[in-house]
Amino acid sequence: MAHYRGTPPVHTDDQIDAFFSHYPDFTYQRDQPIYSELHHMYDTFNWRRENPEREEAWKKFRVAVIETFNSIFGSDAEDLASWQRICRSLGITPIPQGLSEARKAVVQTHVNLVDLLESVRNGSPVETFSTLEELRKYTVNEGRYFPKEEAYEGGLLRYLLREILNDQTVFSVFIAASDHEANDYQK
């Protein structure tokens, strides 16, 4: 069963906005889901798969998503403030005061990273899930995958990503951890 948690403050003028600003002939609607806007832009420019402009836009979009996440939450996996920002955005209360407690609280929460990012960008509550399987089904059904390759270059994101298999490719999409992984963060 899905749950909705706190409403985070709105974060404006980020790298995703900057990405879309490079396409002035496209009417970008910030309040819409970011992937919907990307696909709407593809349609606007009639960019089909394997179109070089579409492929270039996709690469730049993925980087913008990672940069936006890092600018909002931070990129240092050893920074307590970064983990606490994520806790606040997830509606975790009370906010843990120690690094291992904050990590544990985050990794025990099942949330789609695209949803988490959009909730902070738009000030809407983020949906969390009771189980990893509920999150997996939601992610696959909605196609809300977080870019994986670029994320592994960052510190904090590398610890948040987990793998989920879709029919064609493995995508990183969510924060979730088994009890074993959560216990690793306590060490």
How is this structure best summarized?
This is Isoprenoid synthase domain-containing protein. The chain is α+β, with helices and mostly antiparallel strands and 187 residues long.
Verbal overview:
With 187 residues, the chain is α+β, with helices and mostly antiparallel strands. The chain has one domain (2-186). Mean pLDDT is 82; it is low at 166-187. A hairpin with a 4-residue loop joins strand 4 and strand 5 (170-172). The longest helix has 22 residues, at 52-73. Helix 4 (80-90) runs parallel beside helix 5 (99-107). It contains nine helices and six strands; from the N terminus they run βαααααβαβααβββα. The strands form two sheets. The chain has a four-stranded antiparallel beta sheet with strand order 1-3-2-6.
Give the secondary structure arrangement, pairings included.
Elements: E1 2-5, H1 15-21, H2 34-44, H3 52-73, H4 80-90, H5 99-107, E2 110-112, H6 113-122, E3 126-129, H7 132-142, H8 155-160, E4 163-165, E5 170-172, E6 174-175, H9 179-186
Antiparallel strand pairs: 1-3, 2-3, 2-6, 4-5
Give the overall shape, derived from the CA principal axes: globular
What is the number of strand segments? 6
Helix content bin: 40-55%
Q: Which residue ranges are poorly predicted, with pLDDT under 50 across at least 5 consecutive positions? A: 166-187
Major sheet: size, sense and barrel closure? 4 strands, antiparallel
Distance between the termini: 31 Å
What integer is the average pLDDT? Answer: 82
| Percentage of residues in strands | 5-15%
Q: What is the string of helix and strand elements?
A: EHHHHHEHEHHEEEH
- Compute the number of structural domains: 1
| Tally of alpha and pi helices | 9
Sheet with most strands: strand arrangement: 1-3-2-6
Radius of gyration: 16 Å
Question: Structural class of the secondary elements?
Answer: alpha+beta
